[in-house]
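Extended Data, record cysteine desulfurase
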Amino acid sequence: MYDVTEIRRDFPILSREVNGKPLTYLDNGASAQKPRAVIEAVTRAYEHEYANVHRGLHFLSNLATEQYEAVRGKLQRFLGAAHEDEILFTTGSTMSLNLVSYGWAAPRLEAGDEIILSVMEHHANIVPWHFLRERQGVVLKWVELDANGDLDPQAVIDAITPRTRMIAVTHMSNVLGTVVDVAAICAAARARGIVTVIDGSQAAVHLPVNVQALGCDFYAITGHKLYGPSASGALYAARARMAEMRPFIGGGDMIHEVKRDTITYNDPPHKFEAGTPGIVQMIGLGAAIDYMTGLGMENIAAHEHGLRDYARDRLAGLNWLNVQGHSATKGAIFSFTMEGAGHPHDISTVVDQKGVAVRAGHHCAQPLMEFLGVTATCRASFGLYNTEAEVDTLVDALETCHRLFA
């Protein structure tokens, strides 16, 4: 049974007050709070298990290496990858997507080659491809959304030309909560020999993910949204694609042998993991994955779908609130503006006085803001520990805000 009251007790920060009010944390799309299991795993690693990994033969080094490398298997199972060595440790989705850009795309794409993107991509899944546009003449092709904020897979497929080399799309929008049918896109791309890069930063938090079923070549995730530490994350890279990649960060641990005139690289995935890694961060991410799988990703998804439906109904009753995106299959993420209010920052500041934490700005998605015809929005994003009572608190805070501005 999914008992959200018990789950909330696992998160120490949720018991605190902000501005004299109980904290209502609705900024999970930016970064999620950490359960005690993660906090304790990080503390234990620093207090009792810390040493550098891979390089030592002493007890602590072996212990730290064992704890660190165990996370690779956890992520393999969490993402449904076929092999452990298809999991690359990174600092998060931004590094993962840049790794694809520098390691796979840059050596292969030429002037005039095309990368297809959607207008709702996070900047982390845009800027690395702009690098290729600026430096190598690669062409970026943009696919827009429909009136509900959905990305039609056929619209992506129709954008394919003989020069298309890559399709890079989000699995779930960080602004609208839109869930994309990436399996359909990946199937069409695979049939045409086109590589697919999926930004799973949001989706992996809220939905069960199986990269083999999706059929993608690359899938990026970030730990701090997965209730784990910041500066932790991973890239799934199918073996065939990883074999085609070149390392773009050089240093210790990614080599077999270095001489004055030659160098031989380590085997993947370590070939792409140079230097002393975020040892404790990754151990903490492993604890977060254990926590989420213990709850059950299907159970988390069902709980959040209930929150989504309740919040959608409550927010729909506020006729002065402009909610962006109305996908039937969206996640529990709501972006909005308010009639009579100035900037969304003003809304965020007012509701913060009620203890409600929401995000305001362009959410690192400026092409989407332009498409929606706004410069910024407020965003309330829900997680596995949020409740319907917190939806009510948000609505009450928004009503106070509306009265103030009216």
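Summary. The chain has a mean pLDDT of 97.
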